[in-house]
Amino acid sequence: MVEWENVVVKLCSKNRVEIFINERQLGTFELHQTELLDDRTKKLSKAGAVLLQLASKPRYSRRGGMKPTIADKNVISKLRIALKAFVGCSSDPFHPLSYANGWVAKFRVEDHLKG
To answer: What top-level branch of life does the organism fall under (predicted)?
Structure first.
């Protein structure tokens, strides 16, 4: 069984990610097949932007520990669905929601978009 702590998501291009488990490449995935890329604009969706943000800070939260909105929950839900599909794991890729810390990723994200 895959443990999320052993998963690394590498953002390779504007529309592609590579997934590694225990330092072995699982595969390369196109974002246009998920809700991480906006079909209309061909740019990262809000869920895709959160994934990018997780490369610099392993959590997503509202400012000042504010209670998450329905929109926040929907964004995380879309990201969860995409991550589970990439990895083939049904467990939650995030620790339980905490208002103080928001959603904390169990996995690691690396941003390789800028070289």
So the answer is: Bacteria
